[in-house]
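C-alpha cells please, single chain.
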Amino acid sequence: MRQWITFILGFLSFLAVAIIILVLYVGNKPYSETEDQAIDRAKSEQLIEEVERSYVYTNTAASVTVLGTNSKGELTAVFVPKGDGEMQTTPLEDKITAQQAREIALSEMDVKEILHTKLGLESDGPVWEIAFLNKEDSLNYVYLSANDGTWWKRILNL
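Here you go.
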C-alpha cells in the first residue's frame, strides 16, 4: 500500500511540473514569435546586423525594440512597430545607457527593487522605461529621455 501512495504522489508531482513547464512555454510563445519576426524584419531591411537583445515595449501601441550593431559596427536601436508600420532607428553612441538611467532613478526615487529597464519609442523620442518596486512594495514606472536623461513621465504607487 505504501508503494502505491509513493507512486501516485511521484506521478502527480511529475505531472504538475510538466503542466507548469507547458503553460510557461505556451504563454511565452507569442512574445517569442513577435520578437523573432521583428528581428527578421530589421535584418532583412539591413538596419541591424548583430542582435544583442530584443523585447516588446508597449505604450499606446506595441512595438519591439531590437538592440544591436549596424553594418558600420555602431550600437543601434531599431523600433519595429506591430504590423507593417515604418521602422525607426536610433544610434545609441551618444545616448544615455540603461545603467545610467537606472542610476538616475535610484538616486532620485525610493527604490527597493528594479524589475526591468527597457528602451522604447514615444512621441518625444527614445525613452528608458524603468519599472521598480518602492519600499512600500508599490509598483512604479518612470520614463527618462534617452537623449539627455531628463524625466519624461512618472507613474507612481500603483
